[in-house]
Write a structure and sequence with these properties.
The structure holds two protein chains of two kinds.
Chain A: E1 7-20, E2 25-40, E3 45-49, H1 56-63, E4 71-76, E5 79-80, H2 86-93, E6 96-99, H3 113-123, H4 129-142, H5 159-171, E7 177-181, H6 189-206, E8 209-214, H7 217-223, E9 226-231, E10 234-239, H8 241-246, H9 251-258, H10 299-303, E11 308-312, E12 315-318
Parallel strand pairs in A: 3-8, 3-9, 6-7, 7-8
Antiparallel strand pairs in A: 1-2, 1-4, 4-5, 9-10, 10-12, 11-12
Chain B: E1 4-17, E2 20-33, E3 37-41, H1 48-56, E4 64-73, E5 76-77, H2 83-89, E6 94-97, H3 101-104, H4 111-122, H5 128-141, H6 147-150, H7 160-172, E7 178-182, H8 190-207, E8 210-215, H9 218-224, E9 227-232, E10 235-241, H10 242-247, H11 252-259, H12 300-304, E11 310-313, E12 316-318, H13 323-327
Parallel strand pairs in B: 3-8, 3-9, 6-7, 7-8
Antiparallel strand pairs in B: 1-2, 1-4, 4-5, 9-10, 10-12, 11-12
Helix pairs in contact in B: 4-5, 7-8
The chains are: A alpha/beta, B alpha/beta.
């Protein structure tokens, strides 16, 4: 028996009310996350991919209770977060950090980098001023910034350097889990590779678990031990990256993977171009949520929600027809 | 003899800022053939968008200036035209689409009205009914379902992909010979990006227009372009056919870019090749080769002398002092 997961998410739900009219009466719900279950082990990376509006960002935020869940459970080291007292939650929250796409929005523009990085220690009453200064210096060095960065302000840094600051702050309290929400999406190619490398190194050194939320499938494939694909609030397929990229079972995953442009002009492949747009999450289609765009949909897909079935070793899919789909290259 | 629709020759342009004049594009030349696509690749601040805006005569005034160079469209040099004459050229000869169509569409007018107004520019005497009909055809052509219905809607009611289709329809309304596309799929999801690239390819085939495609995504370049111009810090680093660029990249910057993108056959969780450091700011560019402060192969000559863009193969040019040794 392998060790228990560090993070376990069971049937997580998040509905946002939709209000309309003068009295702002509730007229419906956005089903942003609708029954998501995940597991993440220590030192491992789970990639969570999907297109805009699929709910992947909300999953990350709901896990940290940045937005309260509407249903389901989040377990960290086996403890259900919803049952914790405020003081317990505070001490556990140190173990779980998040980095965002644009760290500028989460860095106080009027504080020096030194003060920003010192803050977690101050909040948790760790060390004295001299000790904290030493620590800030070590953090900066670890993420590849010069010690002089401590005296400067966020706007003086480029996008890649700011992301290094965001990472330094996230690792300050030696967390066990970091949620990376599109953390490298806004960066230029050469800088993106630097930040990916930094995350991989830190993960190895600190046994960090990463929940890597992104829409770039090539990047997710590179950093993940397992990949989960989301569509309209649900996870539709999960497997190891090479398995999911080589043998995608769900028609949506197939379309998604075939749509990634490959930086190699000699590799041409049949592209599955999906028709139409993602339906509104306010009234998601019944049955399989993908049936409105699926080239293989039949009657059952319009009425019955597909079960979560094993496809192979450690590979699961939610599709009525995965067995009958044509083989593909 | 190739039939170049658009030829840019030694273009230098920049902006007047509080810190004085800053040259952003420095002696860039390229040409696009009818029916072909030239990719303009590089990272933020390399000057690819500014080059395109200069071609369109759309540099913000009075700060933006074209210092020197020629922009030839057929036999006309656009740099000599008055803004009135230039307006005649834009749309009819060159169309442009942008990354975020929401900022280019008017939020308070219906889609139909905007498409019809655009069509009216090119055919002022046509009556409303004819224009209406043409607008519907145009929207159909770019793959917008139920165009009659969509014409009554506003930009915010459309998805990002649909908005980009409307922009493409408007850019094509004047039947331009050249279409400049500035990161048109960067803000879109990957499945929608695939739809838009497919659309651009088929429209190009139908109309035979030349396309200048600006992007930072090497995957998109490999799929869409015939030739590629790699830019770094305002200058051309390399110019090649798409096949040569990926098969035999000559500039260390191009090599670094290609190596830093995870590919389908890269082993997961391995350390990626990177280019150290960051792109220098316009005000403190290194002397000589602008890539010299990040280049693993830089020598004294690289830090002192600007490398000329020289031929390193058939239709393949590179601006690097050491390309011969590195190619060996």
């Amino acid at each position: 028996m392998s060790e228990a997961p560090l993070l376990e998410v069971r049937n997580l739900k998040k509905y946002f009310p939709v209000r309309a009219g003068v009295l702002l009466r509730k007229v419906g719900d956005v089903h942003a996350v609708d029954g998501v279950s995940l597991e993440l082990r220590r030192g491992q990376t789970l990639g969570l991919v999907g297109e805009s509006g699929c709910g992947k960002t909300t999953v990350g935020r709901t896990i940290l209770n940045l937005v309260p869940p509407s249903g389901g459970n989040v377990l960290f080291e086996g403890r259900d977060l919803s049952t914790l007292r405020a003081s317990e939650w505070r001490s556990l929250r140190r173990q779980m950090q998040i980095i965002f796409q644009d760290p500028m929005e989460s860095l106080n523009a009027r504080h020096t980098i030194g003060r920003i990085l010192e803050e977690p220690f101050v909040i948790h009453k760790l060390g004295d001023a001299a000790w904290r200064r030493v620590w800030v210096g070590e953090l900066l060095e670890r993420v590849g910034l010069p010690p002089s960065a401590a005296e400067r302000f966020p706007h003086e840094f480029s996008g890649g350097q700011r992301q290094r600051i965001g990472i330094a702050r996230a690792i300050a309290l030696k967390p066990k889990l970091i949620i990376c929400d599109e953390a490298v999406s806004a960066l230029d190619v050469s800088i993106r590779a630097q930040i990916i490398n930094l995350l991989l190194e830190l993960q190895r050194e600190m046994q960090l678990a990463l929940l890597f939320i992104a829409h770039d499938l090539a990047v997710v494939r590179h950093v993940s031990d397992r990949v989960a694909v989301m569509y309209l609030g649900k996870i539709i397929e999960q497997a190891a990256p090479e398995e999911i990229y080589r043998r995608p079972a769900h028609p949506y995953t197939r379309a998604l993977i075939s749509a990634i442009p490959i930086p190699d002009p000699t590799r041409r492949r049949a592209r599955i171009v999906l028709q139409g747009d993602v339906p509104s999450p306010i009234s998601p289609p019944p049955g399989c949520r993908f049936h409105t765009r699926c080239p293989y949909a039949t009657e059952i897909c319009k009425t019955d929600v597909p079960k979560w079935e094993p496809v192979g070793a450690d590979h699961h899919v939610a599709c009525h027809h995965w067995r009958e789909l044509p083989r593909q290259q | 003899m190739a039939d170049f629709v658009l030829q840019v020759d030694g273009l230098s342009c920049g902006f007047h800022t509080e810190d004085g004049y800053q040259r952003v594009v420095d002696g860039v030349s390229f040409a696009v053939e009818a029916g072909a696509t030239l990719g303009l690749v590089g990272e933020s601040g390399c000057g690819k968008t500014v080059s395109a805006l200069a071609v369109m005569g759309l540099l913000p005034r009075p700060a933006g200036v074209v210092e020197s160079g020629r922009i030839l469209l057929g036999s006309h040099d656009l740099t000599n035209l008055s803004s009135h004459e230039l307006r005649q050229f834009r749309g009819r000869q060159i169309g442009m689409i942008f990354q975020e169509p929401m900022t280019a569409l008017n939020p308070v007018h219906t889609i139909g009205r905007q498409v019809i107004e655009t069509l009216r520019l090119y055919d002022p005497r046509a009556d409303q009914k004819t224009l209406q009909k043409r607008a519907v055809e145009l929207l159909e052509q770019v793959g917008i379902p139920a165009p009659v219905q969509r014409m009554k809607e506003y930009a915010h009611q459309l998805s990002g992909g649909m908005r980009q289709r409307v922009m493409i329809a408007m850019a094509l309304a004047g039947r331009p010979k050249v279409l400049i596309a500035d990161e048109p799929t960067t803000a879109l999801d990957v499945t929608v990006q695939a739809q838009i690239l497919e659309l651009l390819r088929s429209l190009q085939k139908q109309h035979g227009m030349a396309m200048l495609f600006i992007t930072h995504d090497l995957g998109v370049v490999a799929e869409l372009c015939d030739d590629v111009l790699v830019m770094y810090a305002g200058r051309v680093a390399e110019h090649a056919s798409v096949k040569d660029l990926f098969d035999a990249p000559r500039h260390p910057y191009t090599r670094g870019l290609i190596a830093s993108v995870p590919r389908p056959d890269t082993t997961p969780k391995t350390i990626l090749a990177t280019i150290e450091g960051v792109v220098p700011a316009t005000r403190d560019l290194p002397a000589g080769c602008r890539f010299s402060n990040r280049c693993a192969y830089a020598e004294d000559v690289c830090r002192a002398v600007v490398p000329p863009l020289e031929s390193c193969g058939l239709d393949h040019e590179v601006a690097c002092h050491r390309w011969r040794e590195l190619a060996a």
